[in-house]
Amino acid sequence: MPRIIVDVMPKPEILDPQGKAITGVLEKLGHTGLSVRQGKRFEIEVDQITDARLDEVRKAASEVLANEVIENFTVRVEEAQ
């Protein structure tokens, strides 16, 4: 079944305390030079991929999945595996 992926990330200017905490733990474990930002991933299975379906998912992402005041989102199609 085809899958549409919606990735949601905090906007660059928004503080990301979870990402900072993960970055700190990684540094303590010796993984230096990394900067983590934590987001969300939504996997949406659909019967078929069409332009109308992609538009519908973009609208749903804008209305429900992401808070566009503080988050950006991208919509992409994941190839069948």
Give the gist of this structure.
The protein has 2 helices and 3 strands, in the order βαβαβ.
Shape: elongated
What is the fourth-level CATH superfamily?
Phosphoribosylformylglycinamidine synthase subunit PurS
Give me the CATH architecture, please.
2-Layer Sandwich
Strand content: 25-35%
Structural domain count:
1
Terminal Cα separation, in Å? 10 Å
- The CATH topology name reads Mth169, Chain: A
Strand order of the largest sheet: 2-1-3
Give the biggest beta sheet: 3 strands, antiparallel
SSE blueprint and pairings:
Elements: E1 3-10, H1 17-28, E2 40-45, H2 51-65, E3 71-78
Antiparallel strand pairs: 1-2, 1-3
Description:
The chain is built from 2 helices and 3 strands; from the N terminus they run E-H-E-H-E. It is α+β, with helices and mostly antiparallel strands and 81 residues long. It has helices spanning 17-28, 51-65, and strands at residues 3-10, 40-45, 71-78.
Structure characteristics:
three-stranded antiparallel beta sheet; Mth169, Chain: A; 81 residues; elongated; alpha+beta; 3 strands
